[in-house]
Amino acid sequence: MANPKEKTDPVAKESLLLQCVSLFRAGDSEAFGNLVSLSASLIESVVASFSVPLSEKDDLYQEALIGLYKAALAYRPSLSSFSTFAYLCMRSNILSFLRKSQKSVSVDSVDDWETVFPKDAPFSDPEHALLAQEALQHLLLQIDRVLSPLENRILGLHLQGRTREEIAALCQLEVKSVDNALFRCRRKLKSVLEN
């Protein structure tokens, strides 16, 4: 495989990313390292979008790498480009980490389009942003279709960072019922993502 840093053309870069993902899934021991090298600017832009003390940037970088790893395992080409999917996975993994560790964080203020989607982001132009938004809407519709209204509400509260006890109180359920609903949600969401 060519040196990942040689290509700057977005189409060529996406092609290299997909090669790395395929090789990684096939068990190539160097493929993930190449994927990280190719995604370095994307990883840095995701991490930089969070305002945390400098001492915690390394934690966010590690979480971004875990998100990239998950993206390489779960990517489905029918929904979006790999860059878009990886960006969303890394960002989601960092947010989840921050929520679990109860650290307060603020995403840098949004002043213009360039701030929301930096030039090296996978969807730095409106067309790619629209495609990413459509893919996300399609995924959300699939999720909405498979979850019951109660499961949807419980999942929404869970994603807001509420504890099981808080969710149980808000939904007037036992904590065990919330646990069962979250388990069903995970199983159904896994099914959606695998299809």
SSE blueprint:
Elements: H1 10-25, H2 31-38, H3 40-48, E1 50-51, H4 57-74, H5 82-100, E2 106-107, H6 113-116, H7 126-146, H8 149-159, H9 164-171, H10 175-194
Antiparallel strand pairs: 1-2
Helix pairs in contact: 1-2, 3-4, 3-5, 4-5, 7-10, 8-10, 9-10
Description:
With 195 residues, this protein is mostly helical. The protein has a domain at 1-105: RNA polymerase sigma factor, region 2, helix turn helix motif (Rna Polymerase Sigma Factor, Chain: A), CATH 1.10.1740.10. It is built from ten helices and two strands.
What is the structure about, briefly put?
This protein has 195 residues and is mainly alpha-helical. It is built from 10 helices and 2 strands, in the order H-H-H-E-H-H-E-H-H-H-H-H. It has a domain at 1-105: Rna Polymerase Sigma Factor, Chain: A (Orthogonal Bundle), CATH 1.10.1740.10.
For CATH, the homologous superfamily of the domain at 1-105 is named as RNA polymerase sigma factor, region 2, helix turn helix motif
Q: What is the CATH-assigned architecture of the domain at 1-105? A: Orthogonal Bundle
What form results from the Cα inertia axes? globular
Quaternary organisation of the protein chains: single chain
Helix coverage percent: 55-70%
The assigned structural class equals mainly alpha
What's the SSE pattern? HHHEHHEHHHHH
Based on CA atoms alone, the radius of gyration comes out at 18 Å
CATH class of the domain at 1-105 equals Mainly Alpha
CATH topology of the domain at 1-105: Rna Polymerase Sigma Factor, Chain: A
Largest sheet report: 2 strands, antiparallel
